[in-house]
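Quick question: who can interpret this fold?

. . .
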Amino acid sequence: MSVLDLARPEIRAMQPYSSARMEASGGQVFLNANESAWAPSGEAGQGCNRYPEPQPAALVEALASLYGVRHEQLLIGRGSDEAIDLLVRAFCRAGEDAILIQPPTFGMYAVCARIQNAAVVEVALTADFTLDVDAVLAALTPSVKLVFVCTPNNPSGRPIPRASIERLAAALTGKALLVVDEAYIEFVDAGEDGSVSDLIERYEHLAVLRTLSKAWALAGARIGCLLANAEVIALLRRIIPPYPLPLPCVAAALEALSPVGKDRAHEHVRIVREQRMRMTEALRDLPGVREVLPSQANFLAVRFEQAAAVYQRLLAAGIVVRNVQRYPNLGDALRITMGTAEENARVLQVLQEPVLHEQALQGDAI
Protein backbone atom coordinates (compact mmCIF):
# COMPACT_ATOMS: atom_id res chain seq x y z
CA MET A 1 0.00 0.00 0.00
CA SER A 2 1.29 3.45 -0.95
CA VAL A 3 0.95 6.36 1.48
CA LEU A 4 -0.90 8.17 -1.31
CA ASP A 5 -3.74 5.66 -1.01
CA LEU A 6 -4.67 7.59 2.14
CA ALA A 7 -5.05 10.85 0.20
CA ARG A 8 -8.14 12.14 -1.56
CA PRO A 9 -8.37 10.48 -5.00
CA GLU A 10 -9.51 13.72 -6.64
CA ILE A 11 -6.35 15.46 -5.42
CA ARG A 12 -4.18 12.66 -6.78
CA ALA A 13 -5.93 12.93 -10.14
CA MET A 14 -6.13 16.71 -10.50
CA GLN A 15 -4.04 18.72 -12.92
CA PRO A 16 -2.14 21.27 -10.82
CA TYR A 17 -1.84 24.92 -11.79
CA SER A 18 1.26 25.61 -13.86
CA SER A 19 2.64 29.06 -13.08
CA ALA A 20 4.65 31.18 -15.45
CA ARG A 21 7.68 30.91 -13.19
CA MET A 22 7.46 27.12 -13.16
CA GLU A 23 7.32 27.00 -16.93
CA ALA A 24 10.22 29.39 -17.49
CA SER A 25 13.42 27.67 -18.59
CA GLY A 26 16.08 30.32 -18.74
CA GLY A 27 16.22 33.52 -20.76
CA GLN A 28 17.06 37.14 -20.07
CA VAL A 29 13.88 38.94 -21.13
CA PHE A 30 10.82 37.81 -19.17
CA LEU A 31 7.56 38.61 -20.92
CA ASN A 32 5.56 35.55 -19.88
CA ALA A 33 4.06 36.42 -16.48
CA ASN A 34 2.42 39.84 -17.01
CA GLU A 35 4.78 41.36 -14.43
CA SER A 36 5.98 44.93 -14.32
CA ALA A 37 9.24 45.53 -16.16
CA TRP A 38 10.23 48.09 -13.49
CA ALA A 39 11.23 47.45 -9.92
CA PRO A 40 9.36 49.39 -7.23
CA SER A 41 11.06 52.30 -5.48
CA GLY A 42 13.17 51.65 -2.43
CA GLU A 43 15.91 49.16 -1.70
CA ALA A 44 13.54 46.72 0.03
CA GLY A 45 11.53 46.32 -3.16
CA GLN A 46 14.37 45.37 -5.46
CA GLY A 47 13.43 42.29 -7.47
CA CYS A 48 9.87 42.33 -6.21
CA ASN A 49 8.49 43.23 -9.63
CA ARG A 50 9.09 39.58 -10.55
CA TYR A 51 7.27 36.58 -9.09
CA PRO A 52 9.52 34.57 -6.75
CA GLU A 53 10.54 30.96 -7.20
CA PRO A 54 7.75 28.66 -5.96
CA GLN A 55 10.31 26.76 -3.88
CA PRO A 56 13.53 28.86 -3.81
CA ALA A 57 16.45 26.57 -4.58
CA ALA A 58 18.87 28.26 -2.17
CA LEU A 59 16.40 28.06 0.71
CA VAL A 60 15.47 24.46 -0.07
CA GLU A 61 19.17 23.60 -0.02
CA ALA A 62 19.74 25.40 3.29
CA LEU A 63 16.73 23.83 5.03
CA ALA A 64 17.35 20.33 3.66
CA SER A 65 20.90 20.54 5.01
CA LEU A 66 19.68 21.91 8.36
CA TYR A 67 17.09 19.17 8.86
CA GLY A 68 19.02 16.29 7.30
CA VAL A 69 16.58 15.40 4.52
CA ARG A 70 16.70 15.26 0.74
CA HIS A 71 15.39 18.17 -1.32
CA GLU A 72 12.41 16.16 -2.53
CA GLN A 73 11.42 15.43 1.09
CA LEU A 74 10.87 19.09 1.96
CA LEU A 75 8.14 21.61 1.21
CA ILE A 76 8.45 25.25 2.31
CA GLY A 77 5.35 27.28 3.11
CA ARG A 78 4.03 30.25 5.06
CA GLY A 79 4.81 28.93 8.50
CA SER A 80 3.91 25.40 9.52
CA ASP A 81 0.26 26.57 9.55
CA GLU A 82 0.16 26.34 5.76
CA ALA A 83 1.52 22.79 5.83
CA ILE A 84 -1.18 21.79 8.33
CA ASP A 85 -3.86 23.25 6.07
CA LEU A 86 -2.43 21.55 2.97
CA LEU A 87 -2.30 18.17 4.71
CA VAL A 88 -5.92 18.40 5.83
CA ARG A 89 -7.13 19.45 2.38
CA ALA A 90 -5.12 16.75 0.63
CA PHE A 91 -6.06 13.84 2.90
CA CYS A 92 -9.51 14.64 4.33
CA ARG A 93 -12.70 14.54 2.28
CA ALA A 94 -15.22 17.08 3.50
CA GLY A 95 -17.94 15.52 5.62
CA GLU A 96 -16.33 12.07 5.52
CA ASP A 97 -12.82 11.98 6.96
CA ALA A 98 -11.31 13.04 10.27
CA ILE A 99 -8.14 14.02 12.09
CA LEU A 100 -7.09 12.86 15.55
CA ILE A 101 -5.53 15.21 18.12
CA GLN A 102 -4.55 15.02 21.79
CA PRO A 103 -5.73 18.06 23.73
CA PRO A 104 -4.47 20.26 25.13
CA THR A 105 -2.60 20.98 21.93
CA PHE A 106 -1.99 23.56 19.21
CA GLY A 107 -5.35 24.89 18.03
CA MET A 108 -4.68 25.11 14.29
CA TYR A 109 -5.02 21.36 13.72
CA ALA A 110 -8.70 21.49 14.66
CA VAL A 111 -9.29 24.85 12.96
CA CYS A 112 -7.97 23.58 9.63
CA ALA A 113 -10.02 20.39 9.95
CA ARG A 114 -13.23 22.27 10.66
CA ILE A 115 -12.67 24.64 7.75
CA GLN A 116 -12.44 21.52 5.57
CA ASN A 117 -15.54 20.06 7.31
CA ALA A 118 -13.47 17.16 8.58
CA ALA A 119 -14.30 15.67 11.97
CA VAL A 120 -11.96 16.10 14.94
CA VAL A 121 -11.40 13.05 17.15
CA GLU A 122 -9.96 13.98 20.54
CA VAL A 123 -7.93 11.70 22.82
CA ALA A 124 -6.78 13.72 25.82
CA LEU A 125 -3.21 13.63 27.03
CA THR A 126 -2.80 12.02 30.42
CA ALA A 127 -2.97 14.09 33.62
CA ASP A 128 0.78 14.75 33.38
CA PHE A 129 0.53 15.62 29.65
CA THR A 130 2.03 12.46 28.23
CA LEU A 131 0.77 10.63 25.14
CA ASP A 132 -1.39 7.57 25.74
CA VAL A 133 -0.53 5.51 22.65
CA ASP A 134 -3.00 2.76 23.51
CA ALA A 135 -5.86 5.26 23.86
CA VAL A 136 -4.98 6.86 20.52
CA LEU A 137 -4.97 3.52 18.75
CA ALA A 138 -8.25 2.52 20.41
CA ALA A 139 -9.90 5.70 19.11
CA LEU A 140 -8.67 5.19 15.55
CA THR A 141 -11.33 4.60 12.90
CA PRO A 142 -11.07 4.18 9.12
CA SER A 143 -12.17 7.80 8.72
CA VAL A 144 -9.11 9.15 10.56
CA LYS A 145 -6.56 10.10 7.94
CA LEU A 146 -4.22 12.32 9.98
CA VAL A 147 -2.93 11.92 13.53
CA PHE A 148 -1.25 15.07 14.89
CA VAL A 149 1.30 14.88 17.71
CA CYS A 150 2.89 18.05 19.12
CA THR A 151 6.28 17.63 20.80
CA PRO A 152 7.29 19.47 22.87
CA ASN A 153 3.62 20.00 23.50
CA ASN A 154 2.05 23.41 23.15
CA PRO A 155 0.77 24.61 25.64
CA SER A 156 2.21 22.33 28.35
CA GLY A 157 5.84 22.23 27.16
CA ARG A 158 6.24 18.52 27.80
CA PRO A 159 7.95 16.45 25.06
CA ILE A 160 6.66 13.12 23.78
CA PRO A 161 9.24 10.31 24.07
CA ARG A 162 10.69 9.14 20.79
CA ALA A 163 9.74 5.56 21.67
CA SER A 164 6.06 6.54 21.89
CA ILE A 165 6.17 8.27 18.51
CA GLU A 166 7.90 5.33 16.87
CA ARG A 167 5.42 2.89 18.38
CA LEU A 168 2.56 5.01 17.07
CA ALA A 169 4.17 5.27 13.64
CA ALA A 170 4.52 1.51 13.40
CA ALA A 171 0.90 0.94 14.43
CA LEU A 172 -0.44 3.52 11.95
CA THR A 173 1.19 1.93 8.90
CA GLY A 174 -1.38 1.76 6.12
CA LYS A 175 -4.00 3.44 8.31
CA ALA A 176 -3.20 7.13 8.75
CA LEU A 177 -0.51 9.73 8.23
CA LEU A 178 1.31 10.59 11.47
CA VAL A 179 2.18 14.30 11.62
CA VAL A 180 4.70 15.27 14.31
CA ASP A 181 4.83 18.99 15.03
CA GLU A 182 8.34 19.93 16.18
CA ALA A 183 7.93 23.71 16.36
CA TYR A 184 9.85 23.84 19.66
CA ILE A 185 12.30 20.97 19.19
CA GLU A 186 15.37 23.24 19.11
CA PHE A 187 14.79 24.15 22.76
CA VAL A 188 15.01 20.56 24.04
CA ASP A 189 17.91 20.06 26.44
CA ALA A 190 20.94 18.04 25.38
CA GLY A 191 20.44 14.41 26.29
CA GLU A 192 16.69 14.53 25.69
CA ASP A 193 14.99 13.00 22.63
CA GLY A 194 15.40 15.21 19.56
CA SER A 195 13.75 15.30 16.15
CA VAL A 196 12.21 12.18 14.65
CA SER A 197 12.79 13.36 11.08
CA ASP A 198 15.32 10.55 10.61
CA LEU A 199 12.41 8.11 10.82
CA ILE A 200 10.92 9.41 7.56
CA GLU A 201 13.07 6.95 5.63
CA ARG A 202 11.60 4.07 7.65
CA TYR A 203 7.96 5.18 7.75
CA GLU A 204 6.57 6.58 4.51
CA HIS A 205 3.47 7.78 6.35
CA LEU A 206 5.43 9.95 8.82
CA ALA A 207 5.55 13.72 8.33
CA VAL A 208 7.35 16.30 10.48
CA LEU A 209 6.51 20.01 10.82
CA ARG A 210 9.35 22.48 11.39
CA THR A 211 9.40 26.27 11.58
CA LEU A 212 11.80 29.20 11.61
CA SER A 213 9.37 31.21 13.75
CA LYS A 214 10.71 30.21 17.17
CA ALA A 215 14.39 29.36 17.56
CA TRP A 216 15.30 31.19 14.36
CA ALA A 217 13.48 34.42 15.34
CA LEU A 218 11.52 34.71 12.07
CA ALA A 219 7.90 34.68 13.25
CA GLY A 220 7.24 37.76 11.11
CA ALA A 221 8.70 36.19 7.98
CA ARG A 222 6.34 33.18 8.07
CA ILE A 223 8.73 30.45 6.95
CA GLY A 224 7.95 26.86 7.88
CA CYS A 225 8.26 23.52 6.21
CA LEU A 226 7.03 19.98 6.04
CA LEU A 227 9.44 17.05 5.98
CA ALA A 228 7.90 13.91 4.53
CA ASN A 229 8.02 11.13 1.97
CA ALA A 230 8.78 12.53 -1.49
CA GLU A 231 5.39 11.36 -2.78
CA VAL A 232 3.57 13.30 -0.06
CA ILE A 233 5.60 16.42 -0.83
CA ALA A 234 4.85 16.09 -4.55
CA LEU A 235 1.15 15.72 -3.79
CA LEU A 236 1.06 18.86 -1.66
CA ARG A 237 2.92 20.84 -4.31
CA ARG A 238 -0.14 20.25 -6.49
CA ILE A 239 -2.33 22.33 -4.19
CA ILE A 240 0.02 24.89 -2.62
CA PRO A 241 -0.45 28.42 -4.04
CA PRO A 242 1.96 29.10 -6.91
CA TYR A 243 4.04 31.77 -5.13
CA PRO A 244 3.83 31.19 -1.36
CA LEU A 245 7.16 32.76 -0.34
CA PRO A 246 7.74 36.53 -0.69
CA LEU A 247 11.27 37.52 -1.73
CA PRO A 248 12.01 39.60 1.40
CA CYS A 249 11.01 36.65 3.60
CA VAL A 250 13.26 34.29 1.67
CA ALA A 251 16.15 36.77 2.02
CA ALA A 252 15.57 37.02 5.78
CA ALA A 253 15.53 33.22 6.09
CA LEU A 254 18.76 32.80 4.14
CA GLU A 255 20.47 35.42 6.31
CA ALA A 256 19.25 33.67 9.47
CA LEU A 257 20.62 30.36 8.14
CA SER A 258 24.03 31.81 7.30
CA PRO A 259 27.00 30.84 9.53
CA VAL A 260 26.68 34.12 11.45
CA GLY A 261 22.91 33.69 11.71
CA LYS A 262 23.26 30.13 12.99
CA ASP A 263 25.71 31.21 15.68
CA ARG A 264 23.30 33.93 16.77
CA ALA A 265 20.33 31.51 16.88
CA HIS A 266 22.28 28.91 18.83
CA GLU A 267 23.31 31.52 21.39
CA HIS A 268 19.71 32.65 21.83
CA VAL A 269 18.56 29.06 22.27
CA ARG A 270 21.22 28.63 24.96
CA ILE A 271 19.92 31.73 26.73
CA VAL A 272 16.33 30.48 26.52
CA ARG A 273 17.28 27.15 28.10
CA GLU A 274 19.16 28.94 30.85
CA GLN A 275 16.31 31.37 31.50
CA ARG A 276 13.78 28.53 31.47
CA MET A 277 15.67 26.82 34.28
CA ARG A 278 16.06 30.02 36.30
CA MET A 279 12.44 31.05 35.84
CA THR A 280 11.25 27.58 36.81
CA GLU A 281 13.15 27.76 40.08
CA ALA A 282 12.14 31.36 40.81
CA LEU A 283 8.46 30.90 40.01
CA ARG A 284 8.20 27.81 42.21
CA ASP A 285 9.18 29.91 45.21
CA LEU A 286 6.53 32.59 44.66
CA PRO A 287 3.38 32.65 46.80
CA GLY A 288 0.27 31.87 44.80
CA VAL A 289 2.08 29.55 42.39
CA ARG A 290 0.72 26.02 42.55
CA GLU A 291 3.03 24.39 40.01
CA VAL A 292 5.46 25.12 37.19
CA LEU A 293 4.97 22.41 34.60
CA PRO A 294 8.17 20.78 33.28
CA SER A 295 8.95 22.23 29.86
CA GLN A 296 11.36 21.59 27.01
CA ALA A 297 9.96 24.47 24.93
CA ASN A 298 10.65 28.22 25.02
CA PHE A 299 7.84 28.79 27.50
CA LEU A 300 6.55 27.68 30.87
CA ALA A 301 2.99 26.76 31.77
CA VAL A 302 2.40 27.90 35.33
CA ARG A 303 -0.51 27.02 37.61
CA PHE A 304 -1.68 29.84 39.91
CA GLU A 305 -4.14 29.97 42.76
CA GLN A 306 -5.71 33.02 41.08
CA ALA A 307 -4.71 32.73 37.41
CA ALA A 308 -7.19 35.29 36.09
CA ALA A 309 -6.12 37.89 38.65
CA VAL A 310 -2.43 37.26 37.93
CA TYR A 311 -3.07 37.66 34.21
CA GLN A 312 -4.70 41.06 34.79
CA ARG A 313 -1.97 42.08 37.19
CA LEU A 314 0.74 41.37 34.61
CA LEU A 315 -1.27 43.07 31.88
CA ALA A 316 -1.65 46.19 34.01
CA ALA A 317 2.15 46.27 34.26
CA GLY A 318 2.43 46.04 30.45
CA ILE A 319 3.35 42.36 30.39
CA VAL A 320 1.32 40.13 28.09
CA VAL A 321 1.31 36.39 28.77
CA ARG A 322 -0.97 33.72 27.31
CA ASN A 323 -4.10 32.78 29.21
CA VAL A 324 -4.51 29.04 28.62
CA GLN A 325 -7.28 28.43 31.14
CA ARG A 326 -9.64 27.35 28.34
CA TYR A 327 -7.49 24.29 27.59
CA PRO A 328 -8.27 20.90 29.19
CA ASN A 329 -6.38 20.28 32.42
CA LEU A 330 -5.04 23.85 32.42
CA GLY A 331 -7.92 25.73 34.01
CA ASP A 332 -5.59 27.46 36.47
CA ALA A 333 -2.65 28.11 34.15
CA LEU A 334 -0.89 30.88 32.25
CA ARG A 335 1.77 30.31 29.59
CA ILE A 336 4.83 32.55 29.89
CA THR A 337 7.26 32.78 26.99
CA MET A 338 10.92 33.13 27.91
CA GLY A 339 12.05 36.65 27.02
CA THR A 340 15.33 38.41 27.68
CA ALA A 341 16.82 38.16 31.17
CA GLU A 342 15.54 41.68 31.83
CA GLU A 343 12.01 40.89 30.66
CA ASN A 344 11.88 37.74 32.75
CA ALA A 345 13.15 39.61 35.79
CA ARG A 346 10.35 42.14 35.27
CA VAL A 347 7.78 39.32 35.36
CA LEU A 348 9.17 38.09 38.66
CA GLN A 349 9.28 41.61 40.04
CA VAL A 350 5.61 42.21 39.28
CA LEU A 351 4.60 38.85 40.76
CA GLN A 352 6.63 39.56 43.89
CA GLU A 353 5.20 43.06 44.47
CA PRO A 354 2.76 43.42 47.35
CA VAL A 355 -0.81 43.24 46.13
CA LEU A 356 -4.14 43.75 47.85
CA HIS A 357 -5.34 40.18 48.21
CA GLU A 358 -8.90 41.40 48.36
CA GLN A 359 -8.56 42.99 44.94
CA ALA A 360 -7.27 39.76 43.49
CA LEU A 361 -10.21 37.85 44.89
CA GLN A 362 -12.64 40.46 43.63
CA GLY A 363 -11.05 40.28 40.19
CA ASP A 364 -11.69 36.54 40.06
CA ALA A 365 -15.24 36.98 41.24
CA ILE A 366 -16.20 39.48 38.55
Observations:
- The domain at 3-19+54-257 is CATH 3.40.640.10 (Aspartate Aminotransferase; domain 2).
